[in-house]
Specification:
Elements lengths: L1 E4 L2 E9 L2 E6 L20 E6 L16 H14 L5 E6 L1 H12 L4 E7 L7 H8 L8 H10 L4 H14 L10 H4 L5 E7 L8 H9 L3 E6 L12 H12 L5
Parallel strand pairs: 3-4, 3-5, 5-6, 6-7, 7-8
Antiparallel strand pairs: 1-2, 2-4
Helix pairs in contact: 1-2, 3-5
Length: 247
Amino acid sequence: MLVAINGVDLHYETIGEGEPLLWLHGFMGSGTDWTYIFKEPPAGFQLIAPDLRGHGASTNPSNEFSFREAAHDVLGLLDELRIDRIRAIGVSGGGLALLHMATMRPALVDAMVIVSAPPYFPAQARAIQRQASEAMFGATELELMRKRHVRGPDQLQQLLEHARGFADSYDDVNFTPPCLGMITADTLIVFGDRDPLYPVSLAFELYSAIPKAYLWVVPNGGHGPVFGDAAPRFAKTALSFLRGEWR
């Protein structure tokens, strides 16, 4: 489905029945990435999976992207769906958008799982962002991205251009302790201890600043350490947390 929000045609899917569960994919991903984690829609939840602006089947005619803008788009979608309380999972860039949502509108987010999303971009991430190009990806991954972003080759190039722009952006991803202290959601922070972009020390900064935070450091985990063989354990743990079984 497509809905017009903030000058963007935002594509989203709703899957399953039950309490609303928002899935926010990583940068250069798409809403259907939830299928890499869950074999089927989680029992008791209606999964809401948008493509962030410029990703998948969503448009981005302004050729502008920030995680703050992406958060505003998703907030508009939830308003359109008349959802005033949400549980959510955000992976990498989706986690950054979710952090914006949880600080902009704290009462909206009841519980959330943030995966590999830092409070700010460290120098090592900026060095990688500056080099963003198709050459960074293997042939199989590149072909998957071309299929995922259905609006043609220019769409992928636009996303790579945005990625390079992150290297010199300092105001979008800049979650200070006072800002993070506004979050009221139960928050599970998931980080790999071998993330090439974000050192695990950033996870502890989030954990120290978010009032109702829990921390899961994945041993020998890289960036987004929740896919592949790690997916079943992550799915079980995340859903238990979001259902409030940890309380």
